[in-house]
Amino acid sequence: MNKQVNTAQTILARLGLTADVLQGGNLTVTSPVDGAELAHLAETADMDAVIARAKVAFRDWRNVPAPRRGELVRLLGEELRAAKDDLGALVSLEAGKILSEGQGEVQEMIDICDFAVGQSRMLYGLTIASERPGHRMMETWHPVGPVGVISAFNFPVAVWSWNTALALICGNPVIWKPSEKAPLSALACQVIFERAVKRFGEDAPEGLSQVVIGGADVGAAMVASKDVPVISATGSTRMGRAVGPVVAERFGRSILELGGNNAMIVAPSADLDMAVRAIVFSAVGTAGQRCTSLRRLIVHESIRTELVAKLVKAYASLPVGSPLDPATLVGPLVDMDALKNMQSALAAARVQGGVVHGGEPVTEGVPAGGAYVRPAIVDMPEQSAIVQTETFAPILYVMGYSDLDQAIEMQNAVPQGLSSCIFTLNMREAERFVSDTGSDCGIANVNIGPSGAEIGGAFGGEKETGGGRESGSDAWKAYMRRQTNTMNFSDELPLAQGVKFDI
Ligand code: UN1
Known about the structure:
Homotetramer. The chain has 14 helices and 21 strands. By secondary structure, it is α/β, with parallel strands linked by helices. The strands form six sheets. A seven-stranded mixed beta sheet has the order 12-13-14-11-10-16-17, sandwiched between helices. The protein has a five-stranded parallel beta sheet with strand order 7-6-5-8-9, sandwiched between helices. A three-stranded antiparallel beta sheet has the order 3-4-21, with no helix packed on it. The site of 2-aminohexanedioic acid (UN1) has 10 residues, from loops.
């Protein structure tokens, strides 16, 4: 047994995952760090029973006052704080993120718990003026029922927490189908959640949060069930195209957070040193495997050569290696398929006129068995087909522009619409970018890269990104059912719009 497996087993044991859970099943979990087998999990066999449990849990949980539901989420936040180092390390082992990003992901969970605790006392509805005398209108928000969460390997814990912290305070149980590539992080979250439940006491029904393990079949059962009124799915556009219509067909609600093809416009006035730092973090962080990763750089022609030279230099010194080594900035891709996809994207870029800097597999000085690469910068003559495709790898396509209208048009001319940004010190350009005629994305930043959003804002995007919003702002409303109430305290029955109907 090599050293890494020992480390993994120690971390898993501290997180309460013991051999009886980790062994004996058919789903093999491997670490992207070195391909080591971490576990063989049993797949969930009886989805009907899982959904039935969630339904029963809903009946009880909706009766618990929202601020008290918030107390459970407060305890979850406390347990996450206590487990932060171990859970962060498990994310690094299972998803291949560098240690700081693994920890950062757990911090994102803690942050959304804090947010949701406050929100639990603010499930506000409006009071609306009625057109009729002696009447009052209002809007009330009610729990909606079990929420199904489908998450991807690249944010194996935070995405669950955005959905779960809100779903719980809104009065709903959660069923979580994590990526088959990162189920251990999910099982660890379940243990942490159960610690919080134990401290919370009897008000929390059994089955308030359940994890289901397996492939597309397991997810499909949940997606098709009318007993799971909300499906929040994060992953590829292909997955969203399969999930969305099934949920719509049964008139369920889906919250889709799918692919991104995020751009940065760099204007002539930009602070180039700051832009370089933002570019490198957004394009290379998480080895280019965030849905918010920077994939397209649209640079003013007057600074293009200078900026590309600075980037090529910065990229050359990036430490690629084991994500468990604190000096590493670029960990592995999730698996060998991801490496193949990256290489074929680079080959296509060359055919389409691209000049590729870097991008080759790295085998020296990295653990054997992992898919390590040097991040790539690709100078492109135009925004051709490959640039319009999201490849989940550290490839940054660079294109030039000469006026801002053209840059914004290029920024918007891709099928995806998640995140975007502009680097400029020109106030007109900055305001234009976030105006009605600017970026068409769900996220548009000024002098900040497109990735690494805080939880306080609504997270999600337009077009093929799916239109869903999760996390902060008023995203909680998607986890509740809205009711319009008209209250008549008069002794008359006037009809709206002046309609007469006397009997
Ligand atoms: C994702 O990649 O699915 O904004 C989520 C970010 C993170 C979340 C990314 N806070 O990069």
